[in-house]
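Lecture 7 notes: from sequence to structure.
We start with the chain below.
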Amino acid sequence: MKILVSGGAGFIGSNLCETLLRRGDEVVCIDNFATGKIENLLPLFGEFPKTFKLVVGDIRNLDDCRKAIDGCEAVLHEAALGSVPRSIKDPATTNEVNISGFMNMLIAARDAKVRRFVYAASSSTYGDSKTLPKVEDVIGRPLSPYAVTKYVNELYADVFARTYGMSCIGLRYFNVFGRRQDPNGAYAAVIPLFVKKLMAHESPTINGDGEYSRDFTYIDNVIQMNMLALETTDPAAENQVYNTAFGERTTLNQLVACLKEFLSEFDPKIAEVPVIHGPTRVGDIPHSLACIDKAKKLLGYAPRFSMRDGLKAAVKWYWENL
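Predicted structure tokens for the same chain:
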């Protein structure tokens, strides 16, 4: 197929581009490099010069979306401004990218009559719901502007599917980590940030007492879900939202202990680096754990990487590349 990956220069997007190219698809990437990195794409230009195309553009511009989607049969929409703290500091830009940009992609996909529109949703949609594990049809009130934008994506996708006959599938990502996730910048995700600190023998700062927990999900599980969503021919699986996770809960204290264990195999001194505890972060939910039964039943999802397996692979990548 010819497939558009929006945000294809980012952490998840570039991994999806590579997977699609390796299986023989033609891939178009659109990115404005606000958070994505050209370094993530350079190897793909060299290895797939005839089947990989980059459109430097912004999803907030409908013409850019139309240009990128021209001739594509499907879309994997990853482009967004992530980070709860960033959305609290600058809700307007998060809204423009995540809602207006999403709408532009939907309109372009509708007009191009693409076969399937798969988009990155978020576990932040569960908001203040206390139910564990998280089941797709039970959500609470959003706790951040970012969470609002990702929930609005689901609402728009549902309306476009019912109104215009589109086939849309949303994937609620749970704390994705793995190779190419950027450890730099003010809004770096917790795992690459902690890895970078520990490798430099600097103390990582845990927000709160470290007993908040997350369903950390390795990138290859996320890739599997995207491919299943892209390829399903089951009408019952279409126009749904799915938890995309492993289905296990890990506290931040347990996470740091694992990171120290795996990193100290490369540098024994890392095991001795102390941890700092800071204040609890505004907008954070205390616990997150996904029920993945729906994805297993309707998509045949079978995640291969536990948190520990994925973390071991990620640590090796960071050690070789940082």
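Points to note: The two ends are 34 Å apart (CA to CA). The CA atoms of residues 99 and 152 lie 7 Å apart.
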